[in-house]
Design goal:
Blueprint: H1 6-16, E1 21-27, E2 30-35, H2 40-49, E3 57-65, E4 73-81, E5 86-94, E6 100-101, H3 110-121, E7 125-126, E8 155-160, E9 165-170
Parallel strand pairs: 2-5, 6-7
Antiparallel strand pairs: 1-2, 3-4, 4-5, 8-9
Length: 204
């Protein structure tokens, strides 16, 4: 069955998953569904296998950090139906110590996507068979895409010529902070630059 509009699709999905869908909306021509975290496996399974939806391709799993919220993380699942040429985004929320069920059993490609979300945000996916860091190095501290992660990081690496290897050290900011009260950096110049004397010459 082909839906005449995204609204029709949304109403159908909400009707089929009424116990697990909190709300839906359409933004930028895409259907967004906010769902219950504990039911995410069943939700994606139904969206994949229902003949009227057939969202058989998982395009991405990504995280979003909202530190001011009680459950600070959102996990977004981007699904594509090639049969109906339709996309849907399913959102669930989680706290730092709240596991999200892995959907590897529904979409095997989710394994690496969940690892990336874990690495960047620290969201734990219960049931992922290989939940390790995937972008940062072994022994990396923290999760770089969290809003409270420092811009400089916690450690830096460099090649030590004496030890003949790469070493990790705490970040050291050797440059002093300087405050400029000028509207333009040129206003700080008090001396005359070569060639400025010509500006006062007659006929210049």
């Amino acid at each position: 069955m082909a839906f005449a509009s995204l609204t029709d699709l949304a109403e159908y999905v909400a009707g089929q998953l009424s116990e697990d869908v909190y709300e839906w909306r359409i933004e930028h021509d895409q259907l967004i569904v906010e769902a219950r975290r504990g039911a995410i496996v069943d939700i994606l399974l139904k969206l994949r296998d229902d003949a009227n939806t057939q969202f058989q391709q998982l395009v991405d799993v990504c995280g979003v950090d909202y530190p001011e919220r009680p459950e600070r993380f959102e996990v977004n699942y981007q699904l594509l139906s090639l049969k109906h040429n339709t996309r849907i985004r399913v959102k669930v929320t989680a706290e730092e110590d709240t596991p999200v069920p892995s959907v590897v059993s529904v979409y095997p490609s989710a394994g690496w996507y969940e690892r990336e979300t874990y690495d960047m945000y620290g969201v734990f996916f219960a049931g992922n068979p290989d939940l390790r860091r995937i972008l940062t190095d072994y022994g990396f501290e923290g999760h770089p895409l969290r809003k409270d992660f420092p811009m400089t990081g916690y450690v830096e690496l460099r090649y030590d010529d004496e030890q003949k290897r790469v070493v990790y050290e705490p970040v050291q900011l050797t440059q002093d902070y300087r405050n400029f009260d000028f509207l333009s950096p040129w206003e700080g110049m008090t001396r005359q630059l070569p060639g400025d004397e010509k500006s006062g010459e007659a006929g210049a």
